[in-house]
Amino acid sequence: MSGRKADSGPPEAHNGLGRRATLKDVAERAGVDKSTASRVLRGVGPLSVREETRLRVFQAAEQLHYQPNKIAQSLRTSRSRSLGIVVPQVINPVYTQIIVGASNCARERGYMLLISQTGDQIDSDVYEQLVQQNRVDGLLVATLRDEAAQMKTLAALGVPFILVNRQGGAEANYVMCDEVEGAYRATRSLIDRGHRRIAHLAGEQDRFNAKMRFQGYRKALEDAGLPFDPSLVEVSGYDQRGGELAMQRILDRTGPPPTAVFVVTLVAAAGAMASVHRAGLAIPQDISFLSFHNGSLADMLYPPLTTLEVPLEQMAAQATDALIEILEGQREAIQLTVPAGALVERKSVVKLS
Amino acid sequence: MSGRKADSGPPEAHNGLGRRATLKDVAERAGVDKSTASRVLRGVGPLSVREETRLRVFQAAEQLHYQPNKIAQSLRTSRSRSLGIVVPQVINPVYTQIIVGASNCARERGYMLLISQTGDQIDSDVYEQLVQQNRVDGLLVATLRDEAAQMKTLAALGVPFILVNRQGGAEANYVMCDEVEGAYRATRSLIDRGHRRIAHLAGEQDRFNAKMRFQGYRKALEDAGLPFDPSLVEVSGYDQRGGELAMQRILDRTGPPPTAVFVVTLVAAAGAMASVHRAGLAIPQDISFLSFHNGSLADMLYPPLTTLEVPLEQMAAQATDALIEILEGQREAIQLTVPAGALVERKSVVKLS
DNA sequence: GTGAAAGCGCTAACAG
DNA sequence: CTGTTAGCGCTTTCAC
Fold first, then answer.
1. Which nt is closest to the CA of A49, judged by C1'?
2. Domain ranges of chain A
3. CA-to-C1' span, B107 to C3 (A)
């Protein structure tokens, strides 16, 4: 997995010394200076070390179960080879996907990933903890607010950072997906199945993502020549409770209910569906559901929820790759918008004849 | 939150120097030696520093926006003030709860938490990464396998570790919950509601937790004078797909189906319920469901799932507290079993008359 | 009460 | 090709 071959033995250093071996130990045992040992071990550039010496060093290292002390390396090089990722919460599958993508990618490239939750508000303490204490070389940012203030704080940190699934102004690095097009396609699929009264459970409209999804929804309506009915739009935000309440509000309205609803995110959709069940309505016979974001949760719901896939894991991986490249000077910036994923049809959408 | 008072200003060090301030900078500005500055700043013991000097140092530190370099501190003290937590995966709400509990507690006590996924198998590489590279002072372990081999690996690491929601032999530290009693109570509640044919979707029986829950289930049956019917037990494991398949197997059986099923964990229950829906059966009218572990997922399912709460967050917090106490020499060991939580009644269990 | 000095384990010039 | 030297930023004896 991490490149090292099956090293059956226990990782503990059962070398002759009563402690973990240091570079000095290796050097002494190999009969060279520690600087030489360092050179060899880190396989630096055009190996300016005699083959025989190299061998001796490697042997010594192996025998002593030598593992370089990362802390010392960090102090010396002022690079920690770790990345921070900051998300509002870890319970939401959307963020979990991002974390998984980033974490795998980081591991493959030999970086550690420190995960921080902000709990929904910008907490500059979080950044501080990670960066100012020299723990991370760069930041992956997937917090909610995309305000200028946050961008300033981040920029002031003096380490590279990349927004994941977010956007933050002209200069900021980001990896996004084309949410407008995704939401358009999602809504469109509902229209294609004969729906005319399509509700939207939206995110708070000061959020960039929420706005984009709303925009895609409206455009699909418009292109199909359907009227936009504001009474069919409610703000659910991104959580379960919000989805529940927003759906309730729509159901409570007088006038014909929607035949379908396009929800801004998975967890809100779960809440909304619960509301519909509670109202004694059937999904999809009475109301169809379609949600932005795919995930295993979609299969747990009843009925299984049709979703529009967003390649969050890949996006996070790309952001991580880019961040590492930036850190290693192989790259300057990244401003990438990938297409949204496919429509994953399950059982929550009915075709109206 | 982290003790510091509202420090409006940006965390970036806009001090006179073109870089982050070091202890030396502070010392010079305060007109003292860096050792003195260090003493003052870390508020060491019976302050053997004149009040006036203390003040000067604090002022200098503030003006320079001084933040100690944790890496340097680590190297010097060989303590990183960070903890590792290792879980099989981060998508499962059970582990998310553990992570949240540990993470909050760690933060409060000024420790960082490094989260690692093993992806379901013991990966000693993971431990190595965390420990051998001097990144963490101790480990919280919530991986699946509780085999002796793993315990040996962990012990060989030479850092304190605590199992969370796991058990690992007589010597290992752990924070567990009384799962036998919990499972007993859960099953019992089904019996009390008139159920006689109660199925169990179990975890793999080489897992300690799975065994305990199974045991509680059997004991409840026994105490109620109900026969144990092996054809009512299937191994689902802890995931959705497993739950789906296991439930399918039970439904496929000839002979009377169960009227209720007690599931080993939330996610498996979600899968099992999907199977039941697919079979065209109604929950709870045809089959009642009750699951071990509570979480917001329970409210997303249809119908909302009755669960037995397990205080994972608190357990993780207690384990974290204990680990820190051990690291700081205020404690030797911890072997704690807390009671399982309350039955959270939702809509998935029907009372049979 | 405070300063001087040593050194954690490592890397990176710079010599030789 | 390899060794010497000089720290990274901090804590911690040990003197004064």
1. D1
2. 11-68, 79-177+312-338, 179-311
3. 35
Closest residue to C13 (CA to C1') is A35
Question: What sign for the dihedral angle of Cα B35, B37, B41, B45?
Answer: positive
Q: Is the dihedral of CA B60, B62, B64, B67 positive or negative?
A: positive
The mean per-residue pLDDT over the stretch B190-195 comes to 98
The gap between A220 CA and C8 C1' (Å) is: 63
How many CB pairs lie under 8 A apart between chains A and B? Answer: 153
In CATH, the number for domain B79-177+312-338 is 3.40.50.2300
The whole-angstrom separation of Cα B155 and Cα B136 is 15
Residue A1 has pLDDT above 80, yes or no: no
Q: Which residues contact B89 (CB under 8 A, 6 or more apart)?
A: B95, B117, B119, B120
Residue A270: closest CA among chain B residues belongs to which residue? B300
DSSP one-letter string for A324-343: HHHHTTS-S--EEEEPP--E
3-state secondary structure of A191: helix
A179-311 classified as CATH 3.40.50.2300? yes
> What's the start-to-end Cα distance of chain B, in Å?
52
Same fold, B11-68 and B179-311: no
Taking Cα atoms as reference points, which of B178, B175, B193 lies closest to residue B309?
B178
- The string of pLDDT tens digits covering residues B115-138 is 988 876 656 677 777 787 778 999
What is the second-level CATH architecture of the domain A11-68?
Orthogonal Bundle (1.10)
